């Protein structure tokens, strides 16, 4: 008997408040502890300017590749719980945050729900995501 079907999921990590490297490390550790999930690889960490020209600290960004048996909405709920555990406060769009976790791609799925769009609609607009995704795909 085989185990549950696992899909390859790319999750973007970002932080621009507090101890940014520690927030990213804690997120990776939390992702590894999710049920039915394995962290396969992580891209290099890079610093980027805030989006939309907002006046706030620079971000540290990274992307990870997961293999998971969780469905997309269950994974989204788990990501939001990890964000909350690390002090994420949802305020203005693209505002400062201790931790931001975004599902960028989820296997070959296309999802267009009010609470989840996959592939992430900002992927074409974020060069750093494209670099990180390419690094993981070609590693």
Describe the overall structure.
It is a single chain. This protein has three helices and seven strands. It has 139 residues and is α+β, with helices and mostly antiparallel strands. It has one domain: 2-Layer Sandwich (Alpha-Beta Plaits). The strands form two sheets. Strands 1, 2, 3, 4 and 5 form a five-stranded antiparallel sheet that branches. A two-stranded antiparallel sheet has the order 6-7. The mean pLDDT is 90.
- Number of separate helices: 3
Gap from first CA to last CA: 31 Å
Mean pLDDT: 90
Order of SSEs: EHEEEHEEEH
The CATH topology assignment is Alpha-Beta Plaits
Give the secondary structure arrangement, pairings included.
Elements (H helix, E strand, L loop, with lengths): L6 E9 L4 H13 L4 E6 L3 E3 L10 E10 L3 H14 L14 E7 L4 E3 L2 E3 L8 H11 L2
Briefly summarize what is shown.
By secondary structure, the protein is of the alpha+beta class. It has helices at 20-32, 72-85, 127-137, and strands at 7-15, 37-42, 46-48, 59-68, 100-106, 111-113, 116-118.
């Amino acid at each position: 008997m085989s185990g549950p079907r696992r899909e390859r999921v790319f999750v973007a990590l970002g932080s621009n408040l507090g101890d940014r490297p520690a927030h990213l490390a804690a997120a990776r550790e939390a992702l590894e502890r999710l049920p039915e999930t394995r962290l396969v690889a992580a891209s290099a960490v890079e610093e980027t300017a805030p989006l939309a020209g907002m006046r706030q600290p620079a971000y540290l960004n990274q992307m990870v590749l997961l293999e998971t048996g969780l469905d997309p909405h269950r994974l989204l709920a788990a990501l939001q719980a990890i964000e909350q555990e690390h002090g994420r406060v949802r305020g203005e769009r693209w505002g400062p945050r201790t931790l931001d976790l975004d599902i960028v791609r989820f296997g070959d799925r296309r999802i267009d729900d009010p609470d989840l769009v996959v592939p992430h609609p900002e992927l074409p607009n974020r060069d750093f995501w494209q670099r990180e995704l390419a690094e993981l795909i070609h590693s």
